[in-house]
Amino acid sequence: MKWNFKNKEMVKDLSSEEIIDHLLSLRNIEHKDSFLNPSPEHLHDPFLLKGVEKASKRIISAINNNENIMIYGDYDVDGISSIALMFTILKKLGANVDHYIPSRLKQGYGLNKEAIIETHKRGTNLIITVDCGINAEDEIQLAKKKGMDIIITDHHLPEREITADIIINPKLKGNYPYRELAGVGVAFKLCQGLEKISNLTENFLFWNLDLVALGTVADVMPLTGENRIITSLGLKIMNEGKRPGINALLRVAGHSGEIKAHHIGFVIGPRINALGRLTSATEAVELLVSFNKNKTITLAEQLEKHNRERKKIQDKILKEAHRMIRSDEKLRSKSGIILSSPGWHEGVIGIVSSRISEYLYRPSILITEYDGICKGSGRSIPEFNLMEALEQCEELLEDFGGHSQACGIQIKKENIDNFAVLFNKVASIKLKGRSLEPALSIDCPLSLNSIGEELIRRIGDLEPFGMGNPQPTFANFRLEVIGSPTIVGKNHLRFTVREGNKHFSSIAFSQGDKLELLKKSQKIDIAFTPVIDSWTKKPTLKVYDIRKSNSV
Are residues 130 and 79 both part of a single domain? Predict the structure, then answer.
């Protein structure tokens, strides 16, 4: 990996407090107190977000007039948590409210005409979309023709102007100070608006911030600004253990102890997402809104079963994709990777595409072939904007959407080969001259003499870590390896390094292939984060990369 330093000057002879101040400075964080102590007081007035006040009044009117409200959302964690939040708040306000999630496999993402017709048949007067709808002009018009009002809450970029009755989206032009809210974050701002003009208590609303944190982290939104406040407070509530559905999910996953942001990303989120990938996501909403412990345990076990099935399907497709890559030397040399097969599950190919892009460090799109219109899902690398590339391939596609790092496409089977050629051509031009290898962002070099339990505790004050606020990473050079490095667990590397009189046990996950490097090198460089080892309870270096030192 490339090592990109924010500052190359070695940090030594500084107190833990001074090192934290240095980290905050490197990350351009100006307001130390508010960053280290996120508070509800730091949240913005919801009425600064265009549409919130008007939407709040329309919803209260619907409740007072006994109208039927339908919450319409996406089938991923952001959409599911958005529905769960809005449903909980509207139920508390006494609304006649239901929810609808389209089938990924049958209906696809977002508003669709079939769902609008079904919603109308259920007697709906008002539709509130969450995490979708900003580009669904035809469906919005159909809803209005059917006599239903519609409020769009979304955080995706609009492709064109739409004519919904009320639109709430921080990415639209306006005065709202923070643009990076998740779909559930936008729904939360609407709920804040409802709280301001109703008898809903702020305390009740904030006790549901665990749902907002869930969708925000799972949707890989930057943990800055309001997202940091939401996630920090939401994790505290999650750790109170008062939502049976989340407790049950963690229990069946075998997790105990403190819940941190990465547990949302790697334990809770994938299990909730598994339902939407393979079947209907409705049960995931039920899991999050139910306070019947027996029911939530049953639902969590079902989600765990689906997640195991998802893993099996994912592993099978990944093996097939790797076989294709290994057997085609020309394919391995391409700047853009397109793979297709008639047997691939369309709900899982996006995850596999992500693995392929990580493996080759190239943008990739995997396509599942059908007779007629095929569906594909792609992932990218930071250096390559997928949407800009797809716009140049538009004549070969039936439809496409997404953002710079992830996309979905629809394409006729007979166009796949030509699309692969054109996509690779576009990628070759856009990536020409770039060194295509993963980059590791390093805050600064750090002397081992500066590391102790106090510094590790203070680094913990910078949590929650995630997109936009990564765990601090340091480097050190010309370290001596002492003792005998060993491989432990599933290809993890355990070894000890020394700088002067200070030595630390170190663990490099999934880097067993570097055992010989450690044995043969007199001195090594490492990129690492200091942590407290969960087994020994002692300071340990979590190592991300190892290099042989250039100088002895």
Answer: yes
Pull the structure tokens for residue 196. 């301001």
Average pLDDT over residues 284-295: 95
- Within-domain flag for 84: yes
Looking at the structure, tell me whether residues 60 and 204 fall in a common domain: yes
- Calculate the CA 302 to chain-centre distance: 23
Average the pLDDT over 471-490 and give the result.
94
Residue 257 lies in a domain: yes
Where residue 552 falls among pLDDT bands split at 50, 70, 90? very low
Percent of residues in the chain assigned helix, strand, coil, to nearest 5: 45, 20, 35
Question: If you average pLDDT over residues 333-349, what whole number do you get?
Answer: 93
pLDDT over 50 (residue 274): yes
Based on the fold, state whether residues 144 and 276 are members of the same structural domain.
yes
Which CATH number fits the domain that encloses residue 519? 2.40.50.140
- In this prediction, residue 366 carries a pLDDT of 97
* Domain of residue 85, residue span: 46-302
Copy the structure tokens of residue 320. Answer: 């097939």
Report CA dihedral (254, 255, 261, 265) to the nearest 10 degrees: 0
In a domain, 79, yes or no: yes
pLDDT at position 434 is 81
- Rounded to an integer, the average pLDDT of 347-367 is 94
| 210 vs 490, higher pLDDT | 210
Does 381 map to a domain? Answer: yes
Q: What is the pTM of this model?
A: 0.91
For CA atoms 207, 208, 209, 211, give the dihedral sign. positive
Decide if 307 contacts 274 (C-beta within 8 A). Answer: yes
Residues 449 and 386 in one domain: no
Burial (CB count <10 Å: 0-12, 13-18, 19+), residue 546: buried
Burial of 458 (0-12, 13-18, 19+ CB in 10 A): middle
CATH number of the domain encompassing residue 298: 3.90.1640.30
